[in-house]
Amino acid sequence: MSAYIKVPQDIEKRSFEIIGEELGEKREKFDEKTLPIVKRVIHTTADFEYADLIEFQNGAVDSAMEALKSGCKIYCDTNMIVNGLSKLVLGKFKSSAYCLVSDEQVVKEAKKREVTRSIVGMEKAGKDRDTKIFLIGNAPTALYQLKEMIERGEIEKPALVVGVPVGFVGAAESKEAFKELGLPYITINGRKGGSTVAVSILHGILYQMYKREGF
């Protein structure tokens, strides 16, 4: 029987050691706050191309940390993101995550207007002034809607927007369009991304602020 690592902490530690080794000189592109995020995205995806695709804008990490330290709500465009985030760690900072795409009223309104639930959910989330961070991993329409609301002055400047919708229709374009706002923003350029990537980005920030036991 072959030997293999069984302790979770040891598996994660060794994984990050391998990622650091294989990143090589690309590590120099990132600073002490952004490199852990890049490593966590690669850890989640096993895809080193993310080191070339990820982009940090306008003090995104520091802005997110300040919001989290003060306690805030985080809007996610999928329930997968909500379920993937560490409730324990968010709770340490009196922060919480939520999603409205399955909300009964959102579903009804989206059907009536013949638009995506992501659009209606974002409209409602944008009215909540306690929501300072937005994680968008699936729907380009959510990112476009957030951009339009900010441009119309319907929503205060977010502390962080993670715009990483994945796909072939509007994903890359929505990410580029959002850059025009000059806000604290983390994105994955091109088609790649997804809910798990959005989770890993926020965890990459949170785990710099909170040291988990055993890690």
Automatic annotation (TrEMBL):
SUPFAM superfamilies: Precorrin-8X methylmutase CbiC/CobH. It comes from Fusobacterium necrogenes. Its EC number is 5.4.1.-. This is Cobalt-precorrin-8X methylmutase. Residues 10-207 form the Cobalamin biosynthesis precorrin-8X methylmutase CobH/CbiC domain. It is an enzyme of class 5 (isomerase). Pfam families: CbiC (PF02570). One of its GO terms (biological process) is cobalamin biosynthetic process. PANTHER family: COBALT-PRECORRIN-8 METHYLMUTASE. Pathway: Cofactor biosynthesis; adenosylcobalamin biosynthesis. It comes from the Bacteria. Belongs to the CobH/CbiC family. Keywords: Cobalamin biosynthesis, Isomerase. One of its GO terms (molecular function) is precorrin-8X methylmutase activity.
